[in-house]
Amino acid sequence: MVWLKPKYFFIGLILLVAVWYSMEATQFQFEKFKNIPNMYFFIRDQFFPPNWSIMPRLINASFVTLSMAFLGTFIALIVSIPLSFMAARNTSRHPIFCWFNRTMLSGLRSIPEIVFGLMFVVSLGLGPFPAVLAIMLHNIGVLGKLISELIESAEPGPQEAMKSVGATRWVAVLFSILPQIWPNVLSHFFYRFEVAIRTSLILGFIGAGGIGQLLFNHFQTFQYKSVASDIIAIIVLVIVVDFIGGKIRERVI
Predict the structure, then answer these.
(1) How far is residue 52's CA from residue 29's CA, in Å, rounded to a whole number?
(2) Which residues contact 79 (CB under 8 A, 6 or more apart)?
(3) Which of these, 152, 151, 200, lies nearest to 179 by C-alpha position?
(4) 237 within 8 A of 60, measured Cβ to Cβ
């Protein structure tokens, strides 16, 4: 039998050791699951009914959160497209130039938005602006890598056809590759936009404003009914963005 080969026993042993070590490192204990009903009673007794009187503030905070996520992701898309062409092996002018751009993109996406946010809050002060910059820098790294991989997997035929009729190198690259990858670029953009909404909630905890900051303040002051309203607003916001993004992707793809 295929699964009885020694190498599969070895892989299984490594996985068992990895699981055991992870459980030890994270203090994962099955007996703690018996306390989960306490969370149900806490939510039932403290969260309901939600505090609907804060709805006007929640709507305003929702637009701030949405604006942070959209602006940060959109600027990241604009910046990352040329960078990704310079980071792709089939369109970069020189291997060293390609390596430099890929390393820069790796560096940007390796730093979480919360770390960028903390640094910008210290230097620029509280408010949504540091959050926009944090989301933008991290997403330049992520979108740059994803788009460069799309460029590398694009069909070379259209590019060679344009060159054969006299098009310059960059005109051929731009008008033969970009139309091929554009639907997937939009798909990646909307996915990162949805992620940025959730990220902007976390950035609200460090003073970036929006629903995240309201949520943090309500938790800190034990206003759990307002926390319930915050969570409902977040769920509605993510569902609406996901629905609109899905419709746009359907039309483009």
Answers:
(1) 38
(2) 136, 140
(3) 151
(4) no
> What DSSP line would sit under 104-123, residue for residue?
HHHHHHHS-HHHHHHHHHHH
User: What is the C-alpha to C-alpha distance for residues 85 and 113, in angstroms, rounded to an integer?
Assistant: 24
CA torsion, ordered 223, 228, 232, 233, to nearest 10 deg: 0
pTM for the model: 0.80
Tokens of 244: 């609109």
161-178 burial, b if ≥16 CB within 10 A, otherwise e? ebeeeebeeeebbbebbb
- DSSP secondary structure string, 143-187? HHHHHHHHHHTS-SHHHHHHHHTT--HHHHHHHHHHHHHHHHHHH
Q: Return the closest-CA partner of residue 200 out of 138, 102, 114.
A: 114
Chain centre distance of CA 126: 22
| Tens place of pLDDT per residue across the chain (253 aa) | 566 677 788 888 999 999 999 998 988 888 888 888 888 888 888 888 888 888 888 888 888 888 988 999 999 999 999 899 888 888 887 888 888 888 999 999 898 888 988 888 888 888 888 889 999 999 999 999 999 988 888 887 777 777 777 777 777 777 888 888 888 888 888 888 888 888 888 888 888 788 888 888 888 888 888 888 888 888 888 888 878 877 777 776 6
Structure-token pair, residue 209? 């404003």
